[in-house]
Amino acid sequence: VVTFSRPNPSFLPTLATGQLAILAPSSFDLSYEQRDNGEFIGSGSFVLESYTPNEGIVLARREDYAWPSGAATHEGAPSIERVTISFVDEQSVRESALQAGETDLAQNPTTQVADQLEAEGNGLIFRAQSGIPYSLVLNLTDPALQDIAVRRALSRAIDRQAIFEGVTGARQPASTSVLTPSTTGYADVSEHLVHDLDEANRLLDEAGWTTGDDGIRVKDGRRLTFELILWWEPQEVSDALQLLKEQVAGAGIEITVREDIGGAGGSWRDGTSQLHLNNATRAAGELALYSQYTNDNFESASLIEGVDFGRPLDDFTESGGLSDLVTAQITEPDEEVRAQLLAEAQEIIVRDALRIPLFDNINSESGFFASAPTVHGLRSSTLSELVLHDIWKDEG
Question: What is the C-alpha separation between 372 and 101, in angstroms, rounded?
């Protein structure tokens, strides 16, 4: 029994996701290391037969399975007796294995190869990710980014439609809010995301940033340059960032990209990195915003703990009130009122560029697969994760 001291509308949709999957009570008696190595008992239609770190996983059918979700297309145990998952880092190797008939599924094909695979008769399984789209997260310890004019100029200088048409393609369209359209509570605030290079330059002119000899703006001896810290990302995301760099240069803004998995947190905390590319999977928009956009939770908006922005959230907005909106919606039981509060919050976040949405995304880590023509019954969960319960293959 779970008891709350106040209303919590986001609990039920979150409960329906794999993030709160049911485990046997005995599993909680094990250490984290044991569970991390596959020593647990779940409640799904497959059981973990074996797990070899850095090599793969074997799932075996749960023969007595009889409790599928309402989204399932058949009752009882899965049709497939066993699923073997191999860990293969290189996208090209995964794609070639599918084309050669050596595997039935290939995870996360590149945009270009995915189109080719589909033309060859293979299937593509994906669902637009619920939650927060690929966005620029801003390190607001940086004096330049504390200026709302600079943040707005950076957002206006980005041509999201050009990135969509030239790089990411139909499966990853230009963002229209700080939430993706498949997320509960989503509101379209795309009027604040329109590309307007003239407006970007006007904002920077009025803020006192003058164009230097190399085309990069300068103010009080500070060049308008930002370092973007990057974890591993798919190739199309790296390509999108390259185009973005070229776009913002038109407003006299320089962005450098540095990939640094191990040292990313430190460079963010000490202020040497000012931007970070991030997306987040959430079923409910209420929780997605509450976890980051209240005065109490604002520092977690950096997604790297330990950053002190020095001021409360509302000080970075034009009109204030954002923290109260987000705090109110998380406990509001009336669905229409909650949706209105969420819509107002999304508008403030995007209008004042507290986060700069770029493009919506499929879950490249778990939710985009190419499948052989003989494979059927695949679907994606609310969180864009692959569901294997209904999978079956042609005989032969």
Answer: 8
Run of H or E residues at 392: strand 392-393
Phi, psi at residue 47, to the nearest 5°? -115, 155
- What is the number of other CB atoms lying within 10 angstroms of the CB of residue 97? 16
Strands, sheet with 105-107, edge to edge from the N-terminal-most edge strand: 105-107, 369-371, 123-125
Residue 303: per-residue pLDDT? 46
Question: Cβ of 69: how many Cβ atoms within 10 Å?
Answer: 10
Placement of tokens 């074997």 in the chain: 58
Q: What's the whole-model pTM score?
A: 0.79
Tokens of 4: 């709350």
Which tokens sit at 196? 């307007």
The pLDDT score that the predictor gives to residue 22 is 84
pLDDT tens digits, 245-258? 999 999 999 999 98
Q: Side chain identity at 308, as an amino acid letter?
A: D
**How far is C-alpha 266 from the geometric centre of its chain's CA atoms?**
22
Residue 306, pLDDT score: 52
Q: Would the pLDDT of 117 be above 50? A: yes
Rg (CA), the chain: 23
Q: Which DSSP letter does residue 79 get?
A: S
